[in-house]
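Troubleshooting: if your tokenizer reports a length mismatch, compare against these two reference records.
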Amino acid sequence: MSTPAKIALRPYLPADAPVLAALFRASVAELTGEDYDEEQQEAWMAAADDQAAFANRLSGLLTVVALRGSEPVGFVALKDNEHIELLYVRPDAAGTGVGAALAGAVEALAKARGKTALTVDASDTALGFFQHRGYEAQRRNMVPRADTWLGNTSMKKALGEGR
């Protein structure tokens, strides 16, 4: 088995919007099926239907794109230097360190900007990923999307020494 190419991180560019919208939709469609039904997935993916609104959302957050070669394989968006708003990995790159590189980058950014904790509303699919990184569950949420509800868990990680 070959070693995956090194992951590079860079800031979001407006030209990334169409690729990241497709990556977002593919990630939800292919990675969340064990935790969410088709109706829930469709409602979730609808967040990227309006590409201009999706692009504006990413532009309004501190968004970092992960690349393998020149290909975007994931992205993370940080709100107010303290809340992970979005973290998605292309399905064929899941489990290869892309999510960890993105989470590590925003954790370091938040800490460097004086934040002592980082929060996320983790999907059921991402819950284990964030727990493994030291995030602790705070509360369970039911979020309305179109005519359905999606469950997620608010989590928090202290950004203290050695974390």
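Reference record two:
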Amino acid sequence: MSMARSMSVCLRLPTSTLFEGQAERLTAVAPTGAFGLLPNHIDFVSALVPSVMTLRLVDGSEAIFGIDEGLLVKKGHSVDVAVLRGVLGDDLSSLKHTVESRFVQVDEEERQARSALSRLEADMVRRFAELKTPAP
């Protein structure tokens, strides 16, 4: 593997790509604690916990993401990150507000979907029970 000054990073959500670009450094948090990756780091795989992930981009700027649980895979000069939920923030204070509003909204939508699914399951069980009942 040749020495590189940057690595290709792709941050994916279940339905879209949140970020794709070149970075000089990445920091994230695993179940065992925080870690950092540089372009020439050995190949690496890690689970991620809900936390803040930062990227130092090649232009010197920093990208800050609020992420949910996921998986990070570094192979060569490429890093692929797959997370359940994620948002890009301008700074830590705005990121906190964005994470709270979006993740709480998603949690409420998931709760409503689970409730609807439970009602459908109960209705299906009731209808199957009615099928077993002999006609008078």
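Descriptive notes for reference record two:
- The helical segments are 92-132.
- The radius of gyration is 21 Å.
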